[in-house]
Amino acid sequence: MKADIEIAQDAKAEPIEKIAGKLGLSRDDLHFYGRYMAKVPLDVLKRFDDRPDGKLVLVTAITATKAGEGKTVTSIGLMQALGRLGVNVMGALREPSMGPVFGIKGGATGGGLSQVYPMWDIDLHFTGDIHAVTSAHNLLSAMVENSIAKGNHLRIDPTRVVWKKAIDMNCRELRDIVVGLGGRTAGGVPRESGFLITAASEISAILALATSIQDLRARLGRMVVAYDVEGRPVRAEQLNCVGAMTVLLKDALMPNLVQTLEGEPVFIHGFPFANIAHGNNSLLATRYALKLADVVVTEGGFAADLGAEKFFDIVCRKAGFRPDCAVIVASIRALKMHGGACLEDATSCERSDLSSLSRGFANLDKHIENVRKYGVPVVVAVNRFPTDHADEIALVREHCASLGIPCALSEVFARGGEGGRELAEAVMDVMRTTPSRFRPLYDAKMSIKDKIRTIATEIYGAKDVRYIGTAERDIRAIEAAKSNELPICVAKTQLSISDDPSLKGAPTGWTLTVKEVLLSAGAGFIVPLCGDIMLIPGLSSEPAAERIDITDEGRIIGLS
Question: Fewer CB within a 10 Å sphere, N or C end of the chain?
């Protein structure tokens, strides 16, 4: 089979105005970014406010392993399969961050015959949304430093500046730095600082949750950037640069319209990571996709304990969404790794391994249980790989049947929409026959510690929570700022349901460790930092960047 980028480059895509026409949009309604990408202004989308909402399908997954689960390719393949069934379908997905694209993960635009187009532009600069957030973030950082250096009229405590710098790249060397060297005139006030990846910036979360330019401006103003010498929060609005930041972000607020390889329309908009932010595409993209289509497929980052939990408890709470179905993506080889198999054995095609597979069901079962806690019907999608054995597939089907959960084989990577027909039929059947009784997990008015404990024990399977470092002080500061009634957005490893990446399956009897608690007042949530989570990734020993190049003829190679 051809490489992903070769498949995309050889595809016969429609001009984006033709895709927009399927949604009732004209050429004059679009802001074009070349022939195949466009932004849709908010005043255009508001024309559809009075339409009834379509059905909403959330795609999530089991816990990530190096064997791969294939959540994005399954999401895109499901869109294409629904289109083949004659369903008026649309997708709503996140934008890829260039850090992971050049790191170990590669692109985030699907693969094989189930991709969004043009994948090379989407994976790289796209329409500049991430660059706009990086600029707005660093403008605010510069204004904080300038305020301290130029008289410090806000009486900011230089040791309690919580607003760091941002870059859309995996740079471990920038996690902890010292700024302000060279004397007060040349460098300002020396202090410790650091970088986070742009997708972890509170501004990226705000962009994904804002409902209008007015809401965007108000949220930016509420962000806490530091604390003064008396311990009171200093907010972005006090730096007098929120207007300038809003100008930088005005175009980024508009959803981006692209298409799948089979011509289904997709909004790709918003990019917060799910292990360190709330991990879902923009509220605006989902809201208006629901107005423009009968069925909308969206995707939460990483597994159901991260992106799905945050979609249910943060996004749906804010937007009033009521998901009609959740698809949990699993691969047999990833389940075998959760059952104790090593990567080589899990990906081997020589023999089946029913023993490891059976033990790995604990991880799948926990995610099914978690989604059911929200009252949302579940379908399990088995993303098929060439190494899968027939008896292994049969065992997964039998296990899901014993739980009363529909299970469908997905072959969308190799066969496109046709390979997702069984999954699409299962999803449509569930939405016809099983009503969603969606409800959030917890009451936002609970105490901060009670909300964290509820997520830890109910979703992660922990027995307790302990607070170390500055966590207790941070919670007191949030309570003093009267922001304690916000929902929780836990930052933790994506490699385990626990906060320890080495624990696979569905561990129990462990204690969640919270080392710091951040207030994202503009985004509207509280962020406990758990375990050894980092706010900016590092590159692997063999980064994907080493494989990417462009030929003399202008053809990109190595991007996947």
Answer: N
Question: Other CB atoms closer than 10 Å to residue 102's CB: what's the count?
Answer: 23
Which residues, in sequence order, are bridge partners of residue 520? 525
Q: Please report, for the chain, the start and end positions of each structural domain, with discontinuous segments joined by +.
A: 4-127+252-433, 129-249, 448-530
Q: Given 3-state DSSP classes, what are the helix, strand and coil percentages for the chain, each rounded to the nearest 5?
A: 40, 20, 40
What is the three-class DSSP state of 525? strand
Q: At residue 466, what is the residue type? A: R
Which residues are CB-neighbours of 70 under 8 A, at least 6 positions away? Answer: 111, 329, 331, 383, 410, 413
Burial class, 366, CB count within 10 angstroms (exposed 0-12 / middle 13-18 / buried 19+): buried
Report residue 133 as tokens.
């957030």
CA-nearest of 267, 242, 243, 244 to 255 is 267
The residue to which tokens 């595809």 are assigned: 11
pLDDT tens for each residue of 201-228:
999 999 999 999 999 999 999 999 999 9
Domain 129-249: CATH architecture, name and number where available: 2-Layer Sandwich (3.30)
- The Cα-based distances of 297 to 54, 75, 371 in angstroms read 10, 7, 16
Mean pLDDT calculated for residue range 355-372: 98
CB 347 within 8 A of CB 326: no
DSSP state of 446: S
Distance CA 502, CA 2 (A): 34
- Provide the pLDDT for residue 183: 86
Tokens of 223: 């962000």
pLDDT at 406: 98
- Distances in Å between the Cα of 39 and the Cα atoms of 3, 194, 229, 435 are 29, 33, 44, 34
Question: CATH top-level class for 4-127+252-433?
Answer: alpha beta
- R_g (Cα) of the chain, nearest Å: 23
- Nearest C-alpha neighbor of 134 from the set 172, 103, 165: 165
Measured between alpha carbons, how far is 58 from 545 in angstroms, rounded to an integer?
31
How do residues 414-471 score in pLDDT, each as one tens digit?
Answer: 999 999 999 999 999 999 999 999 999 999 999 999 999 999 999 999 999 999 999 9
Q: Which two tokens stand for residue 152?
A: 């410090």
Q: Is 415 helix (H, G, I), strand (E, B) or coil?
A: helix
Pair 215, 284: CB distance under 8 Å: no
Question: CA-CA distance, 547 to 4, in Å (whole number)?
Answer: 13
User: Which is nearest to 360 in space by CA: 556, 202, 494, 504?
Assistant: 504
| Nearest Cα residue to 378 out of 352, 356, 408 | 408
Beta pairing class for 407-410 and 378-383: parallel
In whole angstroms, what is the distance from residue 199 CA to residue 402 CA? 40
Pick the CATH number of 448-530 from 3.10.20.600, 3.10.410.10, 3.40.50.300, 3.30.2350.10: 3.10.410.10
